Amino acid sequence: MLNFVQSFQYYSMYEVIEPNWHVMADKLSTASTIDDVLTIHSNFLDTCLKECMLTNPSSLKTISKLLSVCSVFGTGMKNIARWRLLPAHTQWQGVSLKLDNGS
User: Fold this and answer.
1) What pTM was computed for the model?
2) 27 in Cβ contact with 21 (< 8 Å)
3) What is the pLDDT of residues 3-50, one digit of tens each?
């Protein structure tokens, strides 16, 4: 899970946003009106969204679900780690174990 998040973040930042940022900066140096600036910026955002695969609803839904699963897993692991750090006599307070002995 961590590998997916790191790879997606790397791809988004260094393969998509950074190169497109440099292209946008070059184009901004030739902009003469605020309308030119807004158009260049809008094109930058559109390009980044497309190259990050965030314009296709199916891809966006899949990426969103994967990141959500990673977040839920991370929260669960944090809770387990917090529970493990509690003193042994407080770990089981409020937990009841119901044993079914067949009677």
Assistant:
1) 0.67
2) no
3) 888 999 999 999 999 999 999 999 999 999 999 999 999 999 999 999
